[in-house]
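Human: Cast an eye over this sequence-structure pair and say how the chain folds.
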Amino acid sequence: MSGTAYTIDFADEDCRDARQVGGKAAGLADMTAAGLPVAPGFVVNAAAYREFLSRDGLREFASSVADELGQTHDRARFDAAARRLEERFAAAELPAEVAAEVRARYRQLGETLGVPDVAVAVRSSATAEDSVGASFAGEFETWVDVVGEDSVVEHVARCYRSVFSARVMSYLAEKRISPEAIEMAVVVQKTVRARAAGVMFTLSPTSGDRSKVAIEASWGLGLSVVGGEVTPDRFLVDKVGLAIVERTLGTKEIEYRRGDATVPVPEERRNVPCLDDDEITSLAELGKRLEKMHGAAQDLEFALDEDLPPGRNAILLQCRPETVWSGVERKPVFDATAGMMSWITGSISGAPAGGSAVGHQHEARAS
C-alpha cells in the first residue's frame, strides 16, 4: 500500500511534499529517505482535512466565526468563539472514505511490525507549520499511546478540531494569518518506548552560537521536556570534534512512561544524567547531518528507545527549521568597511569591529 487518496507512507516520495503533508511529516519523510533512524508510520494528508471540512457546512461555519472575530485581541471573544466551534465540531466525524483508509493503513503498520493494535503517536502536521517566518511549534496537539483503529480515527478528528481552538485562533490573529490558510495533515507514528527523550538545536538557543549543538533531555517520553514540566539535563557540544563542553543536570522529578500520565522519578535517578557521553555525541552527529542536509540550523525532537541496543537506540521524532535565530543577520567577523586596523584592535579587545562589545540574547523557546 503506497500513497493513496488520503494516506501516505513516510517512505513514499509524495510524503516529502509539505504542501500535502505539512512540515512535520515532510521532515520525517526526508529523514526516512536519508536512511536516518525514524519510527515508522504514515500521514493522513491535507486532502483528507479538506474533505472533512467540506461536509455538513463545517468550512462555512468556521469561516463565519473567524470573520466575526476580525482583528480583535479580546481573549473572552476568542474563548466564546472556540466554544461555538467546539460544539459544532464535536459531533463531526471523519468522512467514511477517509476513516476507512486510516483504519487500513493502521492495520498495515501493525502487520509490518508484527504488533496488532500497535501503540502510536497521533501528531498534527499543519501545512503552514514550522516555516522560518512563523513557527506553530506547541500550538497544535499531540497524543501518544493511542491504541486501536477506532481511537486512531477519533484522534485524527481531534487534530482537525485543534485548528479552531482558542489558543490557535489567538495565535493566528497575532500573526495575521487566516484560519483558512491552515490545512491540517496528521502523522500516525509508532510510539517509541523511550528510556529518555528531549529536544536538540544545532546552535545554542540562548546565544545563537552556530558552532554548538544544544541538547535538553529527561527520563521517559519527551512530553515532560516539550511541555516544560521538568528541569531537563542540558548539554552543549562543540560541532568540531564533538567535545561536550557544558553539562547541567536537571532535577527530573517526573517522567511519562506512557502518554496518559506522569509518574515520579525514583530519587536515585533524579541526579543521574539521562544520557551517557556516547549517546550525547551520537545525537550531536545526527544533528550535524540534518543541518548539512537542510542547509540551515535545525530544531529536533528525539528519543532513546529502551527496546533497542546501545548505538542503535536514538530515534528522531521531528525535524524543523530553527526559528528564533534564523532571522538574525549574521555579521562577518571581518568588516571590510571598517579597515584592517579596526579588525585587529577589535579582536584584541573582544569587541566586534565597528560596533559595541555588548551583545543581545534571545530567550530559548519552550519546546
In short: Residues 96-113 form the longest helix (18 residues). The longest strand covers residues 194-201. Residues 207 and 359 are 9 Å apart (CA to CA). The two ends are 34 Å apart (CA to CA).
